[in-house]
């Protein structure tokens, strides 16, 4: 959680299996935090049965491994929407 404060991500890609806690536990901690309750998350797992736990959750996309990188990129683009236009200085 401290690292999130440092980097201020627009989206997280989490595996269901993380060292020290599960991706689901981290997701629950994020959702309990006012600062991170709506942060988009792409949850991945090699076990589709584990991803059932995130189905229907707001701002969470579930992907079963293995997947093509292009599928992950497409989901990230879909979740984040079109890139913001930047102004030239």
Concise account of the structure shown:
The protein is an alpha/beta fold and 89 residues long. It has helices at residues 2-7, 23-32, 48-51, 69-80; strands at residues 12-15, 41-45, 60-64. It has a three-stranded parallel β-sheet.
Chain-wise SSE layout:
Layout lengths: L1 H6 L4 E4 L7 H10 L8 E5 L2 H4 L8 E5 L4 H12 L9
Parallel strand pairs: 1-2, 2-3
Overview of this structure, please?
The chain is α/β, with parallel strands linked by helices and 89 residues long. It contains four helices and three strands, in the order αβαβαβα. The chain has a three-stranded parallel sheet. The radius of gyration is 14 Å and the shape is globular. The mean pLDDT is 90.
Supply database-style keywords:
89 residues, alpha/beta, 3-stranded parallel beta sheet, 4 helices, 3 strands, 36% helix, globular
Helix content: 25-40%
**SS elements, strand count:** 3
Count of helical stretches: 4
SSE order in H/E notation?
Answer: HEHEHEH
Strand order of the largest sheet: 1-2-3
| Low-confidence runs | none
Summed over residues and divided by their number, the pLDDT gives a mean of 90
Structural class: alpha/beta
How large is the share of residues in beta strands? 15-25%
Outline type: globular
Sheet with the most strands, sense and barrel status: 3 strands, parallel
Radius of gyration, CA atoms, in whole angstroms: 14 Å
Distance between the termini: 35 Å
């Amino acid at each position: 959680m401290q690292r999130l404060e440092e980097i201020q991500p627009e989206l997280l890609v989490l595996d269901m299996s993380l060292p020290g806690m599960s991706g689901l536990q981290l997701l629950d901690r994020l959702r309990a935090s006012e600062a991170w309750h709506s942060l988009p998350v792409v949850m991945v797992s090699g076990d589709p049965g584990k991803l059932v736990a995130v189905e229907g959750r707001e701002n969470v996309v579930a992907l079963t491994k293995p997947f093509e990188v292009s599928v992950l990129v497409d989901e990230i683009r879909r979740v984040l929407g079109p890139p913001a236009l930047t102004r030239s200085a």
